[in-house]
Amino acid sequence: MHLNIILAGVGGQGILTIASVINHAAIQKGLHVRQAEVHGMSQRGGAVQSHLRISARKIYSDLISRGTSHLILSVEPLEALRYLPYLSPKGKVVTATDPIVNMPGYPDLEAIFAELHRTDKPVLVSAAEHARQAGNIRTSNMVMLGAAAPYTGITPADLESGIEKLFVRKGADIVEMNIRAFRKGLELSKHQASDT
Predict the structure, then answer these.
(1) To bridge 52 with a disulfide, which of 5, 70, 83, 186 should be the other Cys (CB 3.0-4.6 Å)?
(2) Which residues make Cβ contacts (< 8 Å) with residue 187, sequence separation at least 6?
(3) Which domain holds residue 155?
(4) In total, how many domains does the chain have?
(5) Which of 183, 74, 138 is nearest to 191 (CA)?
């Protein structure tokens, strides 16, 4: 197994939480993990991205080269578009459709989606709506992790175990809410895949 994942979003959307869950799950399976993060004024809603590399063999570099990412998991549509040059020809894009308009001249959403559709069947998710259904809009990142789960090379059960380990100190209700959000995303992804 060898997987390159780019996680993208803006400050406060829980990118590093997604990375932590994947890391927990991968390490529990005895896989090697390397991670590099870039925080661009994340406190003020600036871009945040993480390069996450997972492999059965030792990994020597934290960074993902352009054209070699197997998965772009984004919690903001413009941020998904920003990292398309990193996507491998057979890579997958999974992104939230909820924009964070944090700059003048934010591009037209339809134009963003048109570009994303030039990739191989992107998975587009209304994360905020499904997070509300799970119990809290702050679980949008877990909805997105669920939607991306089929493309991570890690089983949903192992990812759920990672969620539990990460949130256990916050109590059983928080763990359950995040797992519920994860499962909503997973179900959406499976449904989209069966429609194509």
Answers:
(1) 5
(2) 146
(3) 2-195
(4) 1
(5) 183
Cα angle 172, 145, 192; round to 5? 120
- What pLDDT, on the 0 to 100 scale, is given for residue 42? 47
pLDDT tens sequence across 84-115: 999 999 999 999 999 988 788 999 999 999 99
160 vs 22: CA distance, rounded Å: 10
Give 127-146 pLDDT, tens digit per residue.
999 999 999 999 999 999 99
**CATH code of 145's domain:** 3.40.920.10
Cα 136 to Cα 132, 163, 173, distances in angstroms: 5, 16, 11
The structure tokens listed for 114 are: 């048109």
Q: How far apart are CA 187 and CA 71, in angstroms?
A: 18
Contacts of 10 (CB under 8 A, 6+ apart): 42, 45, 46, 47, 48, 75, 76, 79, 100, 102
Q: Which helix (H) or strand (E) holds 156?
A: helix 156-167
Four-residue CA torsion sign, 7, 13, 16, 21: negative
